[in-house]
Predict the 3D structure of the following.
Amino acid sequence: MTGTGLLREGTAVWRSVAGVAVLTCGPARQAHGVTVSTLCVASLHPPMVSVALRRGSRGLATLLGPGRFAVNALSDGQAPLARRFARSDRTDGWDLPDTTGLWDGRSACGAPLLRDAVGWLECRVERTVPVGDHELVLARVLTSRAGTGSPLLNTLPTSATHDRSRA
């Protein structure tokens, strides 16, 4: 197989497993989150992560605005949260009626933290790199905290955590 078919659903790339996280940022009324399964360690020294977000997406624009964000590594019981933050029609805001009990405070930079995640990172955007139809965001990890439990894994693009709509 060659060309655009190389990464099509059902090909070898979809046989890999990735952790699922929600990136969050913004003040209370504009608190925003987006589900990702593209988070990777980019460097240990200095500590950095990378994440690919679709160019032109609301998630990318919101994340780049403040330049700081939190990574909430979801637990295996948080698939509904992954689906919620993957939906393109989701609403923003900390104080929405359906978010009671969802949040666990804020990071030092003010990014919302999700309750019951298996881990949290606080990050500062260092640069972005255009990569095809996405932007690769490179971010310095400022703080890290481990939670408990098992991570939520994404194994296929059609799994419960994946939404093909524009995030």
